[in-house]
Amino acid sequence: MGLSFMNKGLYGAHMTNLISGSKIAISPLPGALGAVVEGLEVAKLSDEALAEIAVELKAAWAEHLVLFFPGVNLAPADQMRLAQLFGNHIAATTEAGGDYRNAPSLRDEGFPEILVLDTELKLDPRQTAVWHTDVTFTDNPPIGSMFVMEIAAKSGGDTMWSNQIKAFNSLSQPIQEFISGLDANHGRPPLTGTAVHPMVREHHVTGEKVLFVNRGWTNSIVGLKPLESMHLLEVINQTAERPELQIRWKWTSGDAALWDNRYTMHYALNDYRGQRRRARRATIYNV
After folding, report:
1. Does residue 204 carry a catalytic annotation?
2. What range defines the domain where residue 65 resides?
3. Active-site residue, from 78, 99, 134, 158
4. Binning pLDDT at 50, 70 and 90, where does residue 248 land?
5. Angle at CA of residue 259, ends 50 and 30, nearest 5°
6. H helices within the chain, ranges in order?
7. For 34-90, what is each residue's pLDDT tens digit?
8. CATH number of the domain bearing residue 119
C-alpha cells in the first residue's frame, strides 16, 4: 500500500532517550512523524512527578507530533490526568462538550469530558474514514487529543496520521506564497457549525509553517471563485495525503496515543466491519 506501517517490534532499533530520573523511554519512529513512549505508569505517579515528566513529554510532542503509548492501559481518571498536562480545558468534542455525531461520553462515570467511540453503539465508522483534523469547524479548534483504545479490532482498524509541516514544504513555492495570505471555510452544515481559519499557521515552538486544510472539514477558500477553490483544495489535499508524509499505527487493546491537532491530520480506517472496537477520546483545548 506504500504506507509507513508502524507497530510493536519495529521501533526498538531506533534511538531511545530516557526521561531524566525515570525509567520512561521515548523512541522516535522512522519516517515522517511519531514517537513511542514506554514505561509510563500514570496511576503510580504523584501529580508532582507527572508534571515533571510532562515537561519532556511536551518537548517530544512538539517535535514528533504524535506520541504512542503501547499497552499503557489508562483508566479514565489517568487519561484525564495526562490530557490535562497538555491543555487547560478538556472536552468530549467541541469546546462546550457536544458531539456532532451524538456519541456518548462517560458522564455517568464522572467524566463528561471523555467521548466513547464504540461500534456496539452503532456509530458509523465511515465518518472518520477520511483525512481530517478534529473540530476545525469551530473558532477555537482543539490543540490535541488523548486517545485510548479499550478494545481493538482483531484485524484492521488502524489509524494513520499525516505531517502537515512536511505537507506545506511539499508544495511549490508559488503555491506556498499564494495560500499563506488566504483563509478557508471549515464545516459541514447542518451537521456542524462553520469557522474561518488561515490556510497556513506556524508551529508554536519552531515557527515552521504548517498547512491547516483538511478534506474532512475544509469546504472552500475565502475570496476565490467556486471552481478555483475546488481545484486548489484538491491539489493541496492530494499533496497533504501523500504516503511519504504519513505514519500508521496498528492498535492493540490498551494502547493510547496523543496527537497534535494543529500540525497533523488523521484517518481512521474503516476495514473492520462486524468486529467490536471501543475507544475513548479526551479532546484538549487551550482557552
Report:
1. no
2. 5-155+250-262+272-285
3. 134
4. very high
5. 100
6. 47-64, 76-83, 164-170, 173-179, 226-240
7. 999 999 999 999 999 999 999 999 999 999 999 999 999 999 999 999 999 999 999
8. 3.60.130.10
pLDDT at 7: 44
Same domain, 54 and 84: yes
Of 262, 266, 277, 280, catalytic:
266
The active-site residue, picked from 64, 197, 215, 281, is 281
Q: Is 266 a catalytic residue?
A: yes
* The pairing of beta strand 35-38 with beta strand 25-28: antiparallel
Q: Which residue did the predictor score with more confidence, 140 or 18?
A: 140
Which of 64, 81, 132, 186 is catalytic? The answer is: 132
For helices 47-64 and 76-83, give the axis angle rounded to 10 degrees: 70
Asked whether the beta carbons of 228 and 127 are under 8 A apart, the reply is no
Residue 245 within a domain = no
The model carries a pTM of: 0.91
> Could you tell me if residue 267 is inside a domain?
no
State the total domains in the chain: 2
